[in-house]
Amino acid sequence: MALIYGSVARHQNHASSNVELMVVGEAPVTEILAVMTPIQGRLGREINPIVYPLAEFQSKLEAKSHFLESVLRQKKLLILEDENELSELDS
Q: What percent of the chain has pLDDT over 90?
């Protein structure tokens, strides 16, 4: 699963806003960063990825992580997967 959150997802961004990206899965951060570099150049914006392996994401949800609960409550743009699958992870 991958989603964009923050000012870009809320449509409150400006030209210098960073893109906040959350990825849940087993992809190594180095691979994600390698993919993001050319995209950042095309967008002219920095992309800030946060990567959680699925088990860690679920553990943080169970522990009521303030950060994750905040991200999941706010408007977000789902890039991979759908809202139903995201809801299943949060149950």
A: 57
Assign domain 2-89 to a CATH class.
alpha beta
> Alpha-carbon torsion 21, 24, 30, 35, what sign?
negative
The full set of domain ranges for the chain reads: 2-89
* pTM, full prediction: 0.81
Name residue, tokens 């139903």.
84
Question: Which one-letter amino acid corresponds to residue 33?
Answer: L
- Reading the block at residue 11, the tokens are 């449509």
Asked if 23 and 52 count as a contact pair (C-beta separation under 8 A), the reply is yes
Phi, psi (deg, nearest 5) at residue 4: -105, 135
Closest residue by Cα to residue 5 from 41, 35, 49, 37 = 49
